[in-house]
Amino acid sequence: MKPEEFYQALAAKGIELSDTQKKQFEIYFHELVETNKVMNLTTIIEEDQVYLKHFYDSLVLDFVDEKLLTEELTLCDVGSGAGFPSIPLKIVNPKLKITIVDSLNKRIKFLDGLVNKLGLDDVTLVHGRAEEVGKNKLYREQFDIVTARAVAALNILTELCLPLSKVDGTFIAMKSEKAPEELEHATYSIQVLGGKVSDQKSFELPNNEGIRNFIFIDKVKNTPGKYPRKPGTPAKKPLV
Ligand code: SAM
C-alpha cells in the first residue's frame, strides 16, 4: 500500500487526512526506518508494508470503533513498541489523550523523539511493565480505552490491560485469526478482573493480508486489588 493508496483507503472509510497529517505519517515512516538501522524496532521496513501493516492496520480500530475518531477520550496503549496502534490513532484524532506503556526503555526514548518531531500534544510515555503500572494509582482504572496489539495471549493480556481501564471503559484486544481460541482460554480471567465481553468484530485487511479480530471487553466492575500480580506472573501462571 503506497502512501497515495493509504490516503485513498482511509478516504473510502470517511477519513480525509489533511496535508499536515499526511506529512506526519511521512515523518513517522522516515523516523521508524532510520532509527531501525541502529535499534530493533520492527521487521517491517518497506514503505508499502509499513503503510499497510503498521499504519493502516492500527487505524482499523477507527473503523470498528468510530468514537476513537472524534471523541476526546483517554487511551492507554500497552506494549506499544514503536507506537502501534496509538500513534497513528493520535495523528488521525488529535483530541485523543494517549498514554503509552512499554517495558523497553529504548522504545520509549524513540517514541519521545518521534512525538516531538510530530508535534503531538497530550502524549504520556511510561517506561515500565504493565504489571507495575497497573498498580500505580496515577494509571490504575484511569482510561476510557485500553488497547494492545501483538503483546501476549488474551488470558495474559487481560491481566495487563483490564486493571488500567476505568469502570465503564473498554479494553479492545487486537488479535489475529486465533482470537476465538484465545477468548475461550480467557473467559475466567476476564470475569475475575472485572470485565465482560461486549462485542467482537472482524476486519479483512486489503491485499489478502489476513483477518484482524477485535475483542471488546467492557470493564463492568473494579479489578480486585491483588491484580495485576507481580511482573512475569501473568505470563508464567495465566489466570485459568
Ligand atoms: N504493539 C506494537 C506493535 O503492534 O507493533 C509492539 C508489539 S511488540 C511485539 C510487544 C511490545 O510489548 C514490546 O515493545 C515489549 O517491550 C512490550 N511488552 C511486553 N510485555 C510487556 C509488559 N508486561 N509491560 C509493558 N510492555 C510490555
Automatic annotation (TrEMBL):
Protein name: Ribosomal RNA small subunit methyltransferase G
Gene Ontology CC annotations of this record: cytosol
Annotated S-adenosyl-L-methionine binding sites: 79, 84, 130-131, 149
Role, per record: Specifically methylates the N7 position of a guanine in 16S rRNA.
Residue ranges that the Swiss-Prot or TrEMBL entry lists as coiled coil: none
Family: Belongs to the methyltransferase superfamily. RNA methyltransferase RsmG family.
InterPro entries: rRNA_ssu_MeTfrase_G, SAM-dependent_MTases_sf
Signal peptide stretch: none
Subcellular location: Cytoplasm
Gene3D superfamilies tied to this protein: Vaccinia Virus protein VP39 (3.40.50.150)
Main localisation: cytoplasm
Keywords, ordered alphabetically: Cytoplasm, Methyltransferase, rRNA processing, S-adenosyl-L-methionine, Transferase
Organism (species): Companilactobacillus nodensis DSM 19682 = JCM 14932 = NBRC 107160
E.C. numbers: 2.1.1.-
PANTHER family linked to this entry: S-ADENOSYL-L-METHIONINE-DEPENDENT METHYLTRANSFERASES SUPERFAMILY PROTEIN (PTHR31760)
GO terms, molecular function: rRNA (guanine-N7-)-methyltransferase activity
Top class in the EC scheme: transferase
Lineage summary: Bacteria, Bacillati, Bacillota, Bacilli, Lactobacillales
